[in-house]
Fold this protein.
Amino acid sequence: MTSKEILFEEAQAADAEALIDFMNQVAGETDYLVMDDQGFQPSLEATRKILATSQEAEDQLCLLARLDDTIIGLINVRTQSPYRISHIGDIFMALRKDYWGYGIGRILLEEVITWAQEMGHLKRLELTVQVRNERAVRLYQSCGFDIEGIKKRGARTDEGEWLDLYYMGRLIE
């Protein structure tokens, strides 16, 4: 069996094109994400700006998992600027389907939790996940996230089937 090294690193503005390709690929592999056949909407220039801003902001993070030169996973943490909610990091995570079940999502999530603890500004991480995405729910729970509520009809499939979402959160001490 051949082993390969996966590199985890913060996204750079130069990663914009590869990130768009990655997002469009994962959008076609699963309906657990909110993207549809329209794909990833931001332009190349807008994506570059988003990544540059993320890299400069100490309270935001876009972390990539790479195998060779290919992005296979991503976790993104965004904050909002109003002071009253600026302590909350909103998480988005995606992984190429070929790499589900290998612990890569766990590594990405644990890296974000460690980063948030060390950074000190964020006091809460939160996300939404489809109730039917049991694998992801178990992962989040095993990393200390609690189900805090249900958003009824929070999403729908391409066929129009209504899907409920869990609101999940984790406090950062």
Observations:
- Residues 104-119 form the longest helix (16 residues).
- The CA atoms of residues 9 and 119 lie 17 Å apart.
